[in-house]
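Lab meeting notes turned into a lecture example. A postdoc, R.K., suggested we walk through two folding results consecutively so the class can see how the record format repeats. The first protein's sequence and structure tokens come next.
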Amino acid sequence: MKWHKLKPVTLATGMLLVICASAVYLKYSADTFSRNFEAKNNTYTKRLSVEQIRRTAKFITVKVMSKEFLGSGILLKKQDSIYTVLTNAHVLRADDPPYRIQTPDGRIWSANLPKNVKFGTNDLAILQFRSSDRNYTVASIAFNPAIGDDVFAAGFPYADEGKDKGFTFTTGKITLKLPKALEGGYQIGYTNDIQKGMSGGPLLNHQGEVVGVNGMHAYPLWDVPSVFSDGSAADQKLHEQIVRLSWAVPTEKFSFRTKITLFSNESQKN
């Protein structure tokens, strides 16, 4: 009788073990599939710490100068010993050539303005300099940041007498993305504090990738209408949102559509 009483218990226990083992296997299989699917589709990316992003930003952000300090720039590309720096067109319009680039190690390089690269009406420009004895970090690029994403802005804001305050790094979030760009190609609105002199510096995501170029700070001195690139003006409600934010030109606007010809004359360190 005892044997008959124990038998169903033994069978039930065995079935329970099988069910548990099956559940564990299915969960492992699902997790493995999910990880493989994410890796295959490039959806899994590691979030860096804020300090790691700050270091990345410091390595890729440069000063753009003429006779005086003009603004900031991004080490965007290296080909052989030639580096390409991205900045805002309005930064270069602040003074005449010759231009100079100060790299993160403090060295100053004379720079050329390539004539064959055009960005249309977007507020963008590039400079090139040659460095045969130094290897600098260049930016990684990402596209299509979303509203609510954390973003990190870097650059060299002005101090008194046109001097910069040193490398500055600010945190914030994207709160507005316009379906069509403002004049100059500005389309990403974010809460980071951007000061004069940080124009041309990078806007980075949580992976340390550049998603835009800083160019307009919040609350401009003159409250002029917000105008889109097609010439139409934003309505008053949208305009009030726009002026409360800093603005960047997104990476889609500076994908090179023409081949960059490397300058032929040797750039020299000053």
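The second example is placed directly after the first for contrast:
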Amino acid sequence: MSITDWIAETTRDAKSRTLSGAPGYAAVARRTYGASPEEVWAAVTTPEGIAQWFLPVSGDLRESGTFQLEGHAGGDILECAPLRRLHLTWVFGDAPANEVVVTLSPAGDGRTTLELEHAAPVEGDEVPGFVLAVGAGWDPALVALGQRLSGEVPDKQWWFESAEARQFTRESVRAWADVLNRRQIANPNAVAKDADETLAFYLGE
């Protein structure tokens, strides 16, 4: 598939959301996979499945337990409703706790739609940068999940080294900027500035 196809297969949105009574915002990504809810659920909740498309994970992986991604975020497992919904806190470094919610829905013909919502206690000028950063961060992971579900072995190094991956990042950031502009969440000039900064971060420029 082409990079443009990969981008088009994800539906993106952004919305206001409350976290522990505080105002916040969420980036929302939806993607439909040619796999059953059972297959998708196993890929996003078991250590073996997660390591194949994302990162190695450890912890007490059950509702009310905890998780830690290798070299990345960790947190609490707030809700784990098999085949339907996973709700986590997402703590990385000294940043305020975020929340991630993954919801699965049958899409017919053996397919499953996954919705991923990543929210943080941000408002005002912080919103565009947050949505762009987490949106562009999750986009390649959701593609890799699809590769794993289709029987491929995702080449994680490819995402860091190839010209095609850099083009994917450019189109991903552009797609999330389009969401912000469509929703009129911020001034277009501010969105463009944050998009440039996000792109420079992910491309190491």
